[in-house]
Design the sequence.
């Protein structure tokens, strides 16, 4: 027999468990809003000096994926993700209609979430010439939006992203989705795969920065400067100094 006191305690415990149970949402937009109040990975808290990364997975024909995460090196939290698919009727209006929509999307994400850095997947060199040119156009408007908002950009190859997130440079789409879900403690698998790839690019940058700070390595921008001139050399007098590019590549 259970006494009245024990029964009341059991009821309170059941109510607390039900209150802490996360609510699932079918739509990605509603789920993204709920993630603002989710706990960080491994139950930790995000530090005040956390880095907010906007990951972009540009696409030539398919949807362009995007994802925003917060991370301080040990804990990370997903804030928002999705993919933009430009309708065929919109693309027929003009050759730059799709590029305009992508540019407006990136600018809106930068204004709404104020990321500290952008991570973009680089062009895959094994593509045919036509697809590579289309992908370069999409990547160009993404970099333009970042430059207009003075947002530094880091570029990572697809193999670097897969090796960093999944531990295997030739991981498929499904493996990347499952690894992104596990690393970000997401209750649902991110869909579509383009959005999961964008989150993976952002995770790749966080892990790269964590390793750089742990081992005291210089930033990619400093490495580029050290390779430009030999040790002890100084530029000649009267030489024109070009402004440093804000696009920092880790390749």
Sequence:
């Amino acid at each position: 027999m259970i006494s009245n006191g024990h029964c009341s305690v059991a009821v309170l415990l059941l109510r607390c468990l039900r209150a802490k149970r996360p609510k699932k949402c079918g739509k990605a937009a509603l789920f993204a809003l709920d993630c603002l109040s989710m706990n960080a990975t491994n139950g930790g808290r995000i530090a005040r000096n956390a880095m907010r990364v906007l990951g972009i997975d540009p696409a030539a024909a398919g949807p362009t994926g995007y994802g925003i995460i917060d991370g301080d090196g040990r804990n990370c939290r997903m804030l928002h993700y999705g993919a933009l698919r430009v309708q065929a009727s919109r693309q027929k209006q003009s050759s730059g209609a799709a590029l305009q929509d992508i540019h407006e999307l990136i600018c809106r994400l930068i204004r709404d979430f104020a990321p500290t850095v952008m991570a973009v997947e680089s062009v895959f060199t094994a593509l045919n010439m036509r697809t590579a040119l289309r992908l370069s156009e999409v990547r160009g408007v993404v970099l333009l939006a970042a430059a207009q908002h003075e947002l530094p950009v880091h570029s990572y190859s697809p193999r670097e992203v897969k090796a960093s997130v999944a531990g295997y440079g030739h991981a498929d789409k499904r493996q990347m989705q499952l690894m992104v879900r596990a690393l970000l403690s997401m209750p649902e698998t991110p869909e579509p795969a383009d959005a999961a790839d964008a989150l993976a690019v952002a995770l790749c940058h966080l892990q790269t920065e964590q390793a750089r700070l742990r081992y005291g390595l210089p930033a990619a921008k400093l490495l580029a400067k050290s390779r430009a001139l030999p040790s002890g050399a100084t530029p000649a007098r009267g030489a024109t100094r070009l402004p440093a590019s804000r696009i920092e590549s880790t390749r």
In short: Residues 92 and 98 are 9 Å apart (CA to CA). The first strand starts at residue 51 and ends at 57.
